[in-house]
Amino acid sequence: MPVSAALLCLVVAIHDGDTLTTRCGTPGAWQQVRVRIAAIDAPESRQAFGQRARQNLAQLCFRQQARLYRLGHDHYGRTLAHVRCQGQDMATAQVQAGLAWVYAPQARQYPALVALEQQARASRSGLWSQKRPIAPWDYRHRYPYSPPQQQR
Question: Distance (Å, rounded) from C-alpha 83 to C-alpha 72?
């Protein structure tokens, strides 16, 4: 996928370790954009290290200017993008901290991220401190999310 020119935005919400909401555009004409960070998959919020991944992303990006390099959209309609906050690539930051996996189907496109994941595994950083960490895609398959039922 071709990378677009950078879009400058303000990060207004952090949903989990790989998804955030930004406000982009000019004052008075803001547009909210829900963004999935390209190339990584962070633990689900209910999963071990899910909250730590979210907190780390929030510490780096919340209420900060972000540069988005849009790649397209994922199957949930979120903007898929490389994200930089405070001059730092967020996929790199999350993988290096041991708080995200390199997204397996795209691993060949990101050898530097794969190397960082291997270093995090070797040093048992973050989620790699667990005996058998469960990849988010396996976790979602084992424990599908069902929204709480509303009372009548």
Answer: 13
